[in-house]
Amino acid sequence: MLVLFLLLLIISSLSTIVLPPPEKQNEIAEHIRKIREKAKQLQEEAKTDLEKAKIEVEKMILGE
Known about the structure:
mainly alpha, about 0% strand, elongated
């Protein structure tokens, strides 16, 4: 959202707005979607790894 806000500020200060063709806009949007999807996947993996580590530490503490 911050990026969007900054873009709007920049655009509002320009007299002429040049946008890439729709195909390029779609390509950019798809690239961003993939990045967000990968970030979500990595967050889930990190959460799983953290839970596994907690269990292992608990076993070590309890001498199991």
